[in-house]
Fold these 2 entries.
Entry 1:
Amino acid sequence: MSELQQTGKCIIFSAPSGAGKTTIVHHLLGADLGLAFSVSACSRDPRPNETDGKDYHFLGVEGFKQAIANGDFIEWEEVYANNFYGTLRSELERIWSAGKTVIFDVDVVGGLNIKRIVGDNALAVFVQPPSFEALEERLRGRSTESEEKIAIRLAKAKQELTSASQFDVVLVNDQLERACAEAEEIVHQFLVTA
Ligand code: ADP
Ligand code: 5GP
């Protein structure tokens, strides 16, 4: 993971899978905050509703390993067994050169790694589900993973929930509308003061 030329700010949203970070990030992208989404690379196949280059750069396992070898990532991780995800340096350069703020939707370890790299130019937000049961319900309700994959994500979530205090802000996603409004306020405050 090599040096990064920092010419802008970024907002990191991390949470256990199913907590609602993608939903909140989509809301923020629609608000007038000058944010642009960092499209991660991953090795898994697209879900039916996902588009290559918009939701992720779907590289496949071989393509992902090649990108690691090329030094294309500022951070990458094997989030689940043989399932790689990573943040492309080219995404930050693209967004910062357009004068916008980068917004990330990454897992908890990835979020803390980006915060470590970007420091004060980054605001790291942990999205907390109101309870573990609510998280489980949301993950099942999304109907995007098999039962086996849901069990893996829930086991990982238990560990991830213990990392909340390492983030700059903890945002409880109970009522979606309220959480989105609070997210807007948090981001706005960071952009006007930091
Ligand atoms: P993540 O990106 O953290 O994995 P998603 O944004 O995909 O989570 O949300 C998981 C599921 O929970 C989705 O089906 C989403 O519509 C739903 N969801 C998000 N926020 C809430 C909320 N506050 N109350 C109820 N359901 C929610
Ligand atoms: P999903 O397969 O549900 O889209 O994502 C699985 C997990 O990978 C989520 O927690 C998501 O936030 C995380 N993720 C997505 N992009 C990145 C990335 O670039 N780096 C890291 N470390 N995690 C990521």
Entry 2:
Amino acid sequence: MSPLAPTRRQLLATAPAVLAPTLLAGACTELQRSDRSALLGATLRLRAEARGLFFGAAANRTSLADRAFAATYTAEVGVLVPETEMKWRALRPTEGAFTFGSADALMDFAAGANLRARGHTLVWHEAWPEWLDAALSAGRAAAVLEQHIERVVSRYRGRMHSWDVVNEAIRLQDSPGHLRQTPWLEALGPRYLDIAFRTARAADPQALLVYNDFGLDDASPADSAKRAAVLDLLSDLKARGVPVDALGTQAHLRAGQVIDQGALAQFARSVAQLGLKLIVTELDVRDHGISGTLEERDRAIADHARRFLDPILAEPATIGVVTWGLSDRYSWLNGPRAERRSDGQPQRGLPLAPDLARKPLWGAIARALDDAPRR
Ligand code: XIL
């Protein structure tokens, strides 16, 4: 067992949640099929680790304050990603101040539960504190960006598996090079990406530095074109020696869209050929286009995720899968800003139901991990 896997004692400590009857219903057949000792092989974390991969999930202070959720989370997950607590708006109330309380609390939780952590995110056009506009227009963009990354990344140096350094920098229609029109681009031009990656590398030479983006998932012309634009960007960064180590594909999937497994396999291969790792960073599945019973919806969601994961996990450069939350009890897909289903039903886009029972999506991820070639 890897030193990062939970000890038997830790697993037993979380056993009440793991053993909830609804949850065990799904696990039983798995356990009967294998002769691994009870539960040790059953969690997504251990299935991933058995293949040399990691499994993680985003979490936040609210979800982790829920004891039943937290117990299940620490059993299922090997890597914690703060959902909002490391974004600028959370860390930077004013230009002069850093507020690390919530971010530190999540890092302490991770350390206490023997989980690794991924940082999210250092450059993004959202979660934007208002004071930042004035700093950028006053010509302080480079200094503010460097200072932010230096302070935040060095605070957690040695404790981060990886950092999402730049998030969502591509928007096809925005510029000839497909870079999104953001205040960072306006203030600094494309070199804001170089500054971000170089400053992050200097502040924590061990953490893997990730370019993270969405909309790279299905066979639509938009997603196909965005895959090409991301490869162009990464290829340019690599050619210029910018220290980027991995692509994060968010994978906010939409059931009902067509997945082209050949195109995804080719995309993953191309990422690998650039010398980069690949991480699925924010997996969840919306199902606006799917009607039917809960069972039919859950099955469609699971099948869709499996079709996506198989070609990605077949690529040896892929190192892990992270879901954007773990249970529909806490999912941004049902949050205040989310699009609603036309029938008013909540989304069921995460592996566990609101009552923490394992859903078919849990099984799809489990089997995709089991079937991945060993790293
Ligand atoms: C989302 C969070 O889940 C929400 O709680 C928040 O209100 C908005 O941001 N891509 C990302 C994530 O990189 O940071 C976003 O997280 C979801 C889309």
